[in-house]
Amino acid sequence: MAEEMDSNMRQFLSDRRLSIADLAKKASSESSETAAERRERLRALAIEKREAELSQLRMEDRYETQVQENFALLTNLHEACFTKCGRRDDVSYLTMAEGICFRNCLNKFNTWYPRLGEQTQDAAFKTYWGLTQELEQEVKKN
Fold this sequence. Notes:
Layout: H1 2-15, H2 20-30, H3 35-54, H4 59-85, H5 96-112, H6 116-120, H7 123-141
């Protein structure tokens, strides 16, 4: 029985083993990107990389901004959902109906929020980045 499980595990692992060649083959077959599109995409990435290297802002700044945004957003979400759903003032907890309302409020947000990043594209960071770039340009002029 143990030998059979070992051979099954070996078979399982060998079936799922990844290799660079397989991944490259799969990536090239799935890509519908033309040479011009690829060149434009790489050019945009190179510009972003160059701007990031020349700026005073670093990846740590971007990460800190994202953490602060998420903290503020989720704190306000919980507070807003609690305020919306908490109707009774005589108890310090949510009733069953209020709890269901609170859960549904959070679930609605959870279906909407994953698309928020695509829609805003790090708007706060880009605003901060733009202001920093303007200041750096002014400093260079003076």
